[in-house]
């Protein structure tokens, strides 16, 4: 038998009776944990399913007998049950009333009152059909209908004869057919909304199951397996029989009030729904195959004997349903029993309760706790019996069937352990008004995912088949968090079980998988420098293959569809961000800065003049003068140093030229500025000033390496160019930069900028006007291309040869392409530019500009550039530099960083 067949049979077994635990073969021991259902095989190979009964006593009270039942069984079982019940004074019995048979309900919404009344109209129509089937004619009145039915059914007519608003429901025959009418909330004909009439003739016709033309699922089960249906065998008629149960209306209300949904149960009882259709198909197949029915009966018996394992595990999403089906119905029985015991009657022959065996465990506890009853006697009645030898079922076949059942139960237990999901229903108002909307929340357990990173830059992922998409999926290892389990412990456990590796786990993120309808969370962990400790420890239901993925490929795989699960793509971004924040990334950044600082320290020593002091210390720089009295040295940091001959041990020059003596140097530096110019010299100077050519362009090319942190994680080559022409009246600056970069290891040319700035200086004034334009390209930003153009006014706070400080204010227009914002927007501009010639070899530049967005209040950009340059005097025009560029955006797309930081360092050439 296939596992699907077994699951269908298990479901039908649970539909037939909600049962209690099994008893080992031949065990008869008295036990507080009384086995209400047991399955056993005799020495002559007779397989029996026994259902228990138990007698209880208490001081000063009547004897009480609990009799367990199953709803399909051999006919003689029900004879035995009736014999056991017959002597009692009162018998409380199980019997869920059909829809519409319950007592008047309170606190219903207008919509619920309409539904309630419609069910009562249909119930009266069903009972009218039942009378016609028995007598050949429809009853003419409700009174005639009651007299033609049993006492229990007559009580249903009594309850259903009024609608939800307390008005009488009218019954009549129209052209020989029943017409049943409720006049709605106003009790008058016509009307709108809940005041409109509810008529049988306006409803869909009764289904075959409602007309009694098709057997219910339990009766169908009985027919297939050669059994009988309880309601066909036990009439429950007579004064001593008291129906002690809820109606389906009450069950439905209680289930919905608890946020559950009993649709499947009600469809099954009514012979409708997908479950009933599938079960009916399975039963048709069983009936058509010789020898299968009796084996199905054997499987049914074995499963009934093992079913408590399922209920102990719990049924996901059905906790509220099972609470109503068991506990709330048992409460009704206990309330009815309390009324009997409080009535003062002796009940010398005792009180009996006959109910499904699955109710007995809870009912027994209530008898002890509420009424003080204790067990005094017990026994079992045989509900089903199969002669295995006569039916040709060998011991080998029985062993195989039992093994199959145990395998299915094991798989079910595992599935239930892994899927503790529950659907909760709630009614909420969106606007605080009276209109309520229905919402459903799936209460699901938290789960974890872990990204294991190896020392060689790979992450371990798993490929496994996913039934929802019916294909393999590439995912990070992970699983459900067990009740009470620490999330980090769960992550380490899943890492070990699914990959065979271990490592310290670190929480890197927390996600909501589906906040629209689920309340659980995904805890994302990462582990670096993992180590293999053994083979994966997979469960029998898992088919997992390990896949080593280079870290540099994660981003690409999330974009090209190699990784498609929404949660998995989100984890990819968390992992990339985690790697960016990792100590290794910071180590690389600080290492670059340290290396550039070391280069700055070493540069003056390369091909520099050296003055060795008597102490052994060495001073590096340019020797500008040397004679018998001492040495004059231009030091790159300390400036001009005059060293007497007594402290100098040796002077090492980088070339053969001998520095001039102090007197010669003074003569070379002397100028005729002290002399008064002659008239002829003044004329020549004026003509020269007029004919002086325009200032030349001063250009610079920088080549170096960059590291960026933020929306891209880059580590690659940088090339930039800048040229400036500066005069007394205006200054023009053109700059461009191109960055060869990597996005987490994936090679890409990702950034380029071109800028043009022009200043118009006002004569004899610190004020100036400026215009600027800029083009930016960034492959990894929310936009690909951006053009900025504008202008404004500036003020030179300081304008010295070695220090300048200029403030700027203005407006710019911004146009982004390949972006969600494709319109031209206006931004303000507030900025400051600073240049500082620290000494002859060192210079520092700083530019910081604030761009407030005029279209979106509160949004802004902040762009800051800083650069330190150290000239190499030994190489004309050569220098080393370290630069930092920081861009902050107040609002970014989801998953992006607000800050982009770029650190650049390398070699520059002036020309």
What does this 3D model show about the protein?
The chain is of the alpha+beta class. It folds into five domains: 1-94 and 215-421, no CATH class; 100-212, Glycoprotein, Type 4 Pilin (2-Layer Sandwich); 444-581, Nucleoside Triphosphate Pyrophosphohydrolase (Alpha-Beta Complex); 603-672, SH3 type barrels, CATH 2.30.30; 698-910, monomeric porin ompg (Porin, Beta Barrel), CATH 2.40.160.40. The strands form nine sheets. A twelve-stranded antiparallel β-barrel has the order 29-30-31-32-33-34-35-36-37-38-39-40. It holds the Pfam family T2SSG. This is NudF protein.
Topology summary:
Layout: H1 3-16, E1 37-41, E2 46-57, E3 64-69, E4 72-73, H2 75-86, E5 90-93, H3 110-135, H4 142-148, H5 151-160, E6 170-174, E7 177-182, E8 198-199, H6 217-224, E9 228-229, H7 230-233, E10 241-243, H8 248-257, H9 263-269, H10 273-288, H11 292-306, H12 308-313, H13 319-342, E11 351-356, H14 360-371, E12 374-387, H15 395-418, E13 422-428, E14 437-443, E15 447-453, E16 458-466, E17 471-475, E18 478-480, H16 487-499, E19 501-502, E20 506-511, E21 522-528, E22 531-532, E23 544-550, H17 554-560, H18 566-581, H19 583-602, E24 609-613, E25 618-627, E26 630-635, E27 639-644, E28 648-652, H20 662-669, H21 679-691, E29 698-709, E30 714-726, E31 730-743, E32 746-761, E33 767-778, E34 785-799, E35 803-817, E36 825-837, E37 842-852, E38 860-871, E39 878-889, E40 899-910
């Amino acid at each position: 038998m296939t596992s699907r067949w077994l699951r269908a049979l298990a479901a039908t077994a649970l539909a037939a009776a909600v049962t209690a635990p099994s008893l080992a073969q031949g065990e008869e021991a008295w036990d507080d944990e009384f086995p209400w259902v047991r399955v056993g095989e005799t020495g002559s190979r007779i397989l029996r399913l026994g259902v228990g009964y138990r007698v209880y006593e208490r001081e000063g009270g009547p004897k009480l007998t609990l009799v367990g039942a199953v709803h399909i069984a051999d006919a003689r079982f029900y004879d035995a049950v009736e014999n056991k019940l017959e002597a009692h004074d009162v018998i409380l019995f199980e019997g869920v009333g059909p829809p519409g048979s319950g007592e008047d309900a309170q606190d219903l919404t207008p919509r619920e009152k309409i539904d309630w009344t419609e069910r009562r109209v249909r119930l009266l129509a069903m009972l009218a059909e039942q009378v016609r089937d028995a007598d050949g004619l429809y009853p003419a009145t409700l009174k005639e209908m009651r007299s033609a039915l049993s006492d229990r059914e007559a009580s249903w007519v009594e309850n259903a004869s009024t609608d939800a608003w307390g008005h009488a429901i009218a019954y009549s025959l129209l052209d020989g057919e029943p017409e049943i009418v409720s006049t709605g909330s106003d009790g008058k004909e016509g009307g709108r909304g809940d005041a409109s009439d509810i008529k049988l003739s306006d409803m869909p016709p009764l289904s075959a199951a409602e007309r009694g033309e098709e057997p219910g699922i339990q009766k169908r089960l009985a027919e297939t397996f050669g059994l009988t249906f309880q309601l066909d065998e036990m009439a429950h008629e007579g004064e001593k029989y008291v129906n002690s149960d809820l109606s389906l209306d009450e069950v439905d209300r209680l289930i919905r009030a608890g946020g559950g949904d009993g649709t499947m149960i009600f469809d099954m009882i009514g012979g409708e729904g997908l479950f009933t259709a599938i079960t009916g198909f399975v039963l048709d197949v069983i009936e058509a195959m010789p020898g299968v029915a009796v084996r199905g009966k054997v499987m049914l018996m074995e499963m009934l004997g093992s079913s408590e394992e399922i209920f102990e595990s719990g049924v996901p999403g059905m906790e509220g349903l099972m609470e109503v089906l068991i506990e709330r119905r048992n409460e009704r029985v206990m309330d009815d029993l309390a009324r009997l015991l409080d009535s003062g009657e002796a009940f010398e022959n005792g009180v009996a309760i006959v109910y499904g065996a699955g109710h007995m465990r809870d009912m027994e506890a209530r008898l002890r706790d509420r009424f003080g009853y204790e067990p005094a006697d017990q026994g079992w009645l045989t509900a089903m019996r199969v002669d295995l030898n006569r039916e040709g079922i060998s011991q080998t076949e029985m062993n195989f069937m039992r093994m199959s059942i145990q395998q299915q139960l094991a798989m079910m237990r595992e599935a239930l352990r892994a899927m503790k999901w529950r659907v909760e229903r709630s009614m909420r108002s969106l606007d605080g008004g009276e209109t309520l909307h229905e919402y459903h929340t799936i209460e699901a357990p938290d789960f974890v995912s872990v990204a294991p990173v190896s020392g060689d830059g790979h992450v371990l992922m798993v490929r496994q088949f996913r039934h929802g998409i019916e294909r393999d999926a590439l995912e990070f290892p992970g699983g459900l968090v067990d009740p009470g389990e620490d999330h980090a412990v769960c992550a380490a456990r899943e890492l070990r079980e699914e990959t065979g590796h271990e490592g310290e786990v670190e929480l890197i993120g927390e996600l909501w998988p589906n906040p629209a309808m689920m309340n659980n969370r995904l805890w994302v962990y990462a582990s670096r420098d993992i180590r293999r400790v053994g083979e994966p420890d997979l469960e029998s239901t898992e088919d997992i293959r390990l896949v080593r993925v280079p870290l540099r490929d994660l981003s690409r795989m999330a974009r090209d569809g190699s990784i498609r699960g929404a949660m998995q793509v989100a984890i990819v971004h968390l992992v990339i961000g985690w790697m960016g924040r990792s100590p290794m990334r910071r180590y690389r950044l600080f290492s670059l800065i340290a290396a550039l600082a070391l280069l700055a320290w070493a540069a003056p020593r390369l091909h520099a003049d050296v003055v060795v002091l008597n102490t052994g210390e060495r001073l590096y720089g340019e020797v500008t003068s040397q004679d018998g009295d001492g040495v004059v040295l231009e030091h790159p940091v300390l400036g001009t140093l005059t060293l007497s001959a007594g402290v100098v041990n040796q002077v090492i020059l980088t070339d053969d030229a001998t520095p001039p003596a102090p007197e010669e140097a003074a003569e070379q530096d002397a100028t005729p500025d002290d002399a008064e110019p002659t008239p002829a010299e003044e004329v020549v100077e004026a003509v020269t000033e007029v004919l002086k050519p325009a200032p030349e362009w001063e250009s610079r090319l920088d080549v170096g390496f960059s590291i960026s942190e933020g929306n891209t994680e880059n580590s690659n080559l940088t090339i930039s160019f800048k040229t400036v022409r500066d005069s007394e009246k205006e200054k023009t600056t053109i700059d461009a930069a191109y960055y060869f970069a990597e996005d987490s290891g994936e090679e890409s040319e990702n950034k380029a900028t071109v800028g043009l700035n022009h200043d118009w200086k006002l004569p004899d004034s610190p004020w100036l006007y400026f215009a600027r334009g800029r083009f930016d390209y960034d492959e990894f930003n929310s936009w690909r291309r951006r053009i900025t153009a504008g202008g404004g006014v500036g003020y030179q706070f300081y304008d010295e040869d070695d220090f300048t400080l200029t403030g700027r204010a203005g407006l710019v227009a911004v146009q982004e392409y390949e972006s969600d914002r494709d319109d031209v927007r206006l931004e303000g501009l507030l900025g400051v530019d600073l240049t500082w010639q620290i000494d002859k070899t060192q210079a520092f530049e700083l530019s910081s500009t604030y761009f407030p967005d005029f279209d979106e209040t509160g949004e802004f950009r902040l762009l800051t550039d800083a650069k330190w340059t150290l000239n190499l005097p030994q190489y004309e025009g050569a220098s080393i530099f370290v630069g930092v560029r920081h861009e902050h955006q107040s609002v970014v797309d989801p998953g992006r960083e607000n800050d982009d930081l770029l650190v650049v360092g390398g070699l520059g050439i002036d020309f």
